[in-house]
Every structure is written in C-alpha cells, then in structure tokens.
C-alpha cells in the first residue's frame, strides 16, 4: 500500500481509503473510488484531498 500524501500516486478511478472530516479524531477509514482530486499541490502532509464517486470528500490515507 502506498501513502496518500503524494498527488502523483493517486489517479481517478483508483481504489483508496480516506478519512472523512468527521472521522479525523477516530481515524476511521472509508473505502471508495476516486472521482476527483481536490488538492492542487503535489503533496500534502495529511494526505491528498479527494472526492469519491459517491460524493464523500476526505484525505487519502491508503491506496489499494
């Protein structure tokens, strides 16, 4: 598994595990497929922000 802190590791259609805003304290991972990449910079220490196909938004913690 790759880390989700580099934008180059994430592609539209990738299966990823993200942490939603409301789950940041618990660290609960939500799995889904990337619809859009929202972070413009090449890297982010807390993970690249993406939108899943179901519309949920969070930061990528793992790439499957």
From TrEMBL:
It comes from the Archaea. InterPro entries: DUF2196. This is YwbE family protein. It comes from Methanolobus halotolerans.
